Amino acid sequence: MRDTRAELLIQAETLVRGRGYAGFSYADLSEAVGIRKASIHHHFPTKVDLGAALVAAYAARYAAALDTIRTTVADGPGRVAAYGKLYLGGVEQGLGCLCAALAIEGEALPERLRRDIATFFEGHLAWLEAILREGQADGTVRDGAEAAVLARYVIATLEGALLMERLFASPASFEGTLAVLVEGLRPR
């Protein structure tokens, strides 16, 4: 049996990650999935509803991945490396991070989506801050910078590298940036 809602979310995510929220319409999504626009409205009455569902599904996938990293990778730098590899799929597909693609549109987005995106990034910052603080406590992450500042540095570096390597289509360069980032977290 066809799961139209799931297909819509998959195709809408690809469209947003490739074109941005303002860069696609229900007509584009209708064509990608092969259904009428009215059928899309049945599942997602408004584009804001669709956007919120996209962010929720994306956040759930990331939350599961972050839990796996925390339980399977032993140290702070290794966890950051594993976190960075989550971005690599976007580079390989020529797609940006969903929430970064949405965040770029800033004030043009509906308030509900801005809140959802902020919540997504706040969760990532909290996770990174915790693993970096643990790494500082166990000696695997360098001291000298607050874990909260390092967490923002990690996300800014990875999002910037994703944006650049999406343009240049260079997964190897992204991996190089990730390696330098991770090495810089280790004690000197």
From TrEMBL:
Q: Which residues form the HTH tetR-type domain?
A: 2-62
Give a single Pfam family match: TetR_N
This one is known as TetR family transcriptional regulator
Presence of the UniProt keyword DNA-binding in the record: yes
Q: Which PROSITE patterns match?
A: HTH_TETR_2
Could you list this entry's UniProt keywords, alphabetically sorted.
DNA-binding, Transcription, Transcription regulation
Phylogenetic lineage: Bacteria, Pseudomonadati, Pseudomonadota, Alphaproteobacteria, Hyphomicrobiales
PANTHER family with a match to the protein in the record: HTH-TYPE TRANSCRIPTIONAL REPRESSOR NEMR (PTHR47506:SF6), TRANSCRIPTIONAL REGULATORY PROTEIN (PTHR47506)
Write down the Gene3D superfamilies for this protein, in alphabetical order: Tetracycline Repressor, domain 2
May I ask which residue range the UniProt record assigns to the signal sequence? none
- Molecular function terms, GO-annotated: DNA binding
InterPro entries given in the database record? Homeodomain-like_sf, HTH_TetR, Tet_transcr_reg_TetR-rel_C_sf, TetR_C
DNA bind region: 25-44
Please name the SUPFAM superfamilies in this protein's record: Homeodomain-like (SSF46689), Tetracyclin repressor-like, C-terminal domain (SSF48498)
Q: Which organism is it from?
A: Methylobacterium tardum
